[in-house]
Amino acid sequence: MKAVIIDRNDIIECLLEKGAKCDPPMEVKNSLEVRTTPLMEAILQRNVDAIRLLLQHDANPLLKNRNGETALDLLNEQLKTGHMFLTASNTLLGPKRAKKEMPMSQETFDELKEVEKLLKKAEKEYAENHPEILLRNESVGLIISRKRRHESINPVENIC
């Protein structure tokens, strides 16, 4: 769902309401061609509204990317980076390291902390409602490609 990358929450909402899937794999050129899901990309973009929207439409928070990271792993990395940036002025080595990372405001950090609670709750609920997903220890690309062999592709998904 490329609307996540271009930060168009209105398009994301429209597509989801029309039946687009929340979990198609995405090729992200800025991330060395690592496959992600729209939920993972929204986390990397720090787009709190898109994260909430995708979770409301039953996005799978348990999927892993090719690096074996879940959405929660990526969120924790964003929070770690944000904490480092926000506390950089209080440490000797902090500012040099923080310059390499994308700056984060205290407001964004607080919103991501709230999203962390939602994501943990979503993981628990998804695991309870979809016990078969816990049996899989595969990357997003493999899980999706197996599903597509047995399903017809939704035409709305191709718009993304």
Tell me what the structure shows.
The structure is a single chain. By secondary structure, this protein is mainly α. It has one domain: Alpha Horseshoe (Serine Threonine Protein Phosphatase 5, Tetratricopeptide repeat), CATH 1.25.40. It has helices at 2-5, 9-17, 38-44, 48-56, 71-87, 94-98, 106-129, 140-150, and strands at residues 26-28, 34-36. A hairpin with a 5-residue loop joins strand 1 and strand 2 (34-36). Residues 136-160 have low confidence and may be disordered.
Counting helices, strands and paired strands, the structural category is: mainly alpha
Low-confidence stretches: 136-160
Distance between the termini: 5 Å
**What is the mean predicted local confidence, pLDDT?**
75
Largest sheet: 2 strands, antiparallel
Helix content: 40-55%
How many DSSP-defined strands? 2
Strand order of the largest sheet: 1-2
Question: What is the domain total for the residues?
Answer: 1
CATH superfamily: Ankyrin repeat-containing domain
Element pattern in H and E? HHEEHHHHHH
CATH architecture assignment: Alpha Horseshoe
The Rg value, from CA coordinates, equals 16 Å
Report strand %: under 5%
Overall 3D form: globular
Q: What name does the CATH topology carry?
A: Serine Threonine Protein Phosphatase 5, Tetratricopeptide repeat
Pfam families: Ank_2 (PF12796)
InterPro entries: Ankyrin_rpt (IPR002110), Ankyrin_rpt-contain_sf (IPR036770)
